[in-house]
Design brief:
The complex is a heterodimer of chains A (316) and B (279). Chain A is an alpha/beta fold and 316 residues long. Chain A folds into 2 domains: 5-99 and 163-217, Rossmann fold, CATH 3.40.50; 236-313, no CATH class. Helices cover 31% and strands 23% of the residues of chain A. Chain A is built from 11 helices and 12 strands. Chain A has helices at 47-54, 81-86, 94-97, 104-114, 120-130, 147-159, 177-194, 205-211, 229-234, 239-246, 309-313; strands at residues 5-16, 19-31, 36-40, 62-67, 70-71, 87-90, 165-169, 197-201, 214-219, 222-228, 296-299, 302-304. An 8-stranded mixed beta sheet of chain A has the order 6-7-8-3-9-10-12-11, with helices on both faces. A 4-stranded antiparallel beta sheet of chain A has the order 2-1-4-5. In chain A, strand 11 (296-299) and strand 12 form a beta hairpin. In chain A, helix 4 (104-114) packs across helix 5 (120-130) and helix 6 packs parallel to helix 7. Chain A is globular, with a radius of gyration of 21 Å. In chain B, the strands form 2 sheets. Chain B has a 6-stranded mixed beta sheet, sandwiched between helices. In chain B, strands 2-1-4-5-6 form a 5-stranded antiparallel beta sheet. Chain B has helices at residues 42-50, 79-82, 94-97, 104-114, 121-131, 137-140, 150-162, 180-197, 208-214, 232-237, 242-250, 271-277, and strands at residues 4-13, 16-26, 31-35, 57-66, 69-73, 76-77, 87-90, 168-172, 200-205, 217-222, 225-231. Chain B is an alpha/beta fold and 279 residues long. In chain B, strand 10 (217-222) and strand 11 form a beta hairpin. In chain B, helix 4 (104-114) runs parallel beside helix 7. The chains are: A alpha/beta (316), B alpha/beta (279). The interface between A and B is large, with 42 and 45 residues.
Chain lengths: 316, 279
């Protein structure tokens, strides 16, 4: 199948004073039509920067983003217009993502107006129904909505132009469990009804595990591991993925104390930026980890950039 | 009887009862979990115990005892006397709970001073920050909240919470804003402090799995009432209330459930890992 989105060698640096921060440090990624790919990692791992580069909100330092084989990196805002119709972002906190002074109707109609659509009223009605919001909410403002309703408005705004890809950056982080469940069910339904493709970014491993077919694990801007979600979450190859997963609280686990990471230094300046970037926190680091880690293919399509990956994946 | 006892607590906002007949007992050295959706009254119950209810809310019935002494009854609130020294609380978003214009160490010192300590404040403050596992606590004491990560801010909050060695610490969604790895570290820290100091802890969360892993007993709250309570084992393994069943189901770990090809959810690969984890 032809990929819908292809990311090649994507890098994004931020400069702060004399310091350079490699927020995204060489990421390759493909999204096939109709699939859901999860990106997990701690805050600061570059997940959101990756999302902003893919949606054209940030210009990558180097590397390219292709949409249906067309290179969209570095296009002007005007030239990006068609692409933005197709690839829409949904952000973590709808309260800051939505204009507080606009009504729900205006918020959802705005993308239609920008793209010169006709029949705006009818389309707004349709989309409201689609995301499960009552028509009476049309005249409300974001502050007068519940957290779940607000996120539904954000999703309505994202799908109103009938895009092919949604880039969801922590879409359920600001709501509690029962609302999270409802939002995930909504996303699942929209995906099958509208043949949407999802890039689902989250630090909530549980949600990614239930939503995505493939999962990518990022650490300090680099790809630590990727593969089918079942493989990555059930038999992680990278020590980082293992510690990440063992930190998820779990009902019925005999011991609450999995492997702990070593303490992080106070500032990021002291961190080495060669070899395995995770080595300084890794509970099982070896002297060899000072060199760049090999990318180990654990099973076809399941890869981990960790010296211990092969060994860890073998049954004892 | 000691620790924190909440007996038949009612809290009202206007003529609406938002907390109804809540009973909770946090014995010294134990951890009690309070679980429920947002708006179920968990935080109001906690705030009532500290005398920090919002102005519109008031205790209309029941009583709260700390170390056997009555601190809160309808119309009478002595909790200000025990706040800090008897009972303390840490909050969900540590960055918002800390004062942005004061250095971290200064905020810890203020708590110490308010509880009557005068000598060696700086040394004691660095000691407390160190006890929360912060690296280079003397350096961190001189930093402002915006210079610290979310996890570090929560550790500073915890240092303030334990500064006057309270009998009971209430942790209201202490890790909601944090990464799972940091969450595990913070919960470990609270466990350690509890076993070292013998303080009781009330852990409030909307996430059943957090509470399940850390607490001896669990109370489930819904629409202002406790609908189920018991030992963690009993609540998790034979939930009586359908709402509890839902909360448990929400957090049952089922990686790769999406990858099961068949639409039937009752069978397939999704069941395997869940059972393995639930041993």
């Amino acid at each position: 199948m032809r990929p819908l989105i292809e990311v090649r060698g994507l890098r994004k640096d931020y400069r702060r004073g004399g310091e350079v921060l490699h927020a995204v440090d060489g990421i390759d990624l493909t999204l096939l039509p109709g699939e859901s790919v999860g990106v997990i990692g701690e805050s600061g791992s570059g997940k959101s920067t990756l999302a902003r580069c893919i949606t054209g909100l940030e210009r990558p330092t180097s590397g390219s983003v292709f949409f249906q084989d067309a290179d969209v990196t570095g296009l002007s805002d005007r030239a990006l217009r068609w692409f933005r119709r197709e690839v829409q972002p949904v952000f973590q906190d709808p309260l800051t993502a939505l204009n507080p002074r606009w009504t729900v109707r205006r918020l959802i109609a705005e993308p239609l107006k920008i793209h010169g659509e006709r029949d705006v009223e009818r389309r707004v009605d349709e989309v409201l129904r689609d995301v499960g919001l009552a028509k009476e909410l049309m005249t409300r403002r974001p502050r007068d909505l519940s957290g779940g309703e607000r996120q539904r408005v954000a999703i309505a705004r994202a799908i109103v132009l009938r895009p092919s890809v949604l880039v969801l950056d922590e879409p359920t982080a600001s709501v509690d469990m029962s609302i999270r469940r409802a939002l995930l069910a909504l996303l699942k339904r929209l995906q099958s009804e509208h043949r949407l493709t999802y890039l689902y970014i989250s630090h909530d491993i549980r949600t990614v595990g239930e939503t995505c077919r493939r999962t990518i694990v990022m650490y300090r801007g680099r790809l630590a591991e990727e593969g089918p979600t079942t493989a990555v979450l059930n038999s992680p190859g990278h020590v980082y993925t293992q510690t990440l997963i063992s930190a998820v609280p779990r009902i019925g686990r005999a011991s609450a104390r999995p492997d702990r990471l070593r303490a992080r230094p106070v500032s990021s300046q002291q961190l080495p930026d060669t070899g395995c970037l995770f080595a300084h926190r890794c509970p099982r680091a070896l002297p060899e980890c000072a060199a760049d880690p090999p990318v180990v293919e654990i099973t076809p399509g399941h890869r981990a950039a960790c010296l211990l990956a092969r060994r860890a994946s073998r049954p004892p | 009887m000691s620790g924190l006892e909440i007996v038949g607590l009612h809290v009202s906002i206007g003529d609406r009862d938002v907390v109804r007949a809540v009973d909770l007992h946090v014995k010294p050295g134990t951890c009690v979990g309070l679980v429920g959706a947002s708006g179920s009254g968990k935080s109001l119950t906690a705030l009532a115990s500290l005398g920090l209810l919002p102005r519109a809310a008031r205790v209309t019935a029941g009583r709260i005892l700390l170390g056997g002494d009555e601190t809160v009854t309808p119309g009478r609130d002595r909790s200000a006397e025990v706040r800090g020294s008897g009972i303390a609380m840490i909050f969900q978003s540590p960055r918002a709970a800390l004062n942005p214009v004061l250095r971290a160490g200064h905020q810890v010192e203020r708590v110490l001073r308010r509880n009557g300590q005068r000598d060696d404040l700086t040394r004691r403050c660095v000691e407390l920050l160190g006890a929360t596992g912060l690296p280079e606590p003397d350096k961190i004491a001189r930093l402002y909240p915006h210079e610290l990560s979310g996890g570090m801010c929560q550790r500073v909050m915890i240092a303030m919470g334990i500064a006057s060695e309270p009998e009971v610490l209430i942790a209201d969604e202490p890790t909601t804003a944090l990464d799972v790895t940091v969450q595990a570290e913070i919960l470990d820290l609270l466990d350690d402090l509890r076993s070292r100091t013998g303080m009781g802890m009330l852990l409030i969360s909307h996430d059943m799995s957090i509470v399940a892993e850390r607490c001896e007993s669990i109370s489930v709250m819904r629409q202002g009432e406790i609908v189920e309570s018991g030992t963690s084992w009993a609540v998790l393994n034979s939930p009586r209330h359908p709402f509890t069943t839902e909360l448990v189901r929400d957090v049952t770990y089922r990686p790769g459930i999406e990858s099961s090809p068949a639409p039937s959810s009752s069978a397939g690969p999704a069941d395997g890992p869940a059972r393995k984890d639930g041993r």
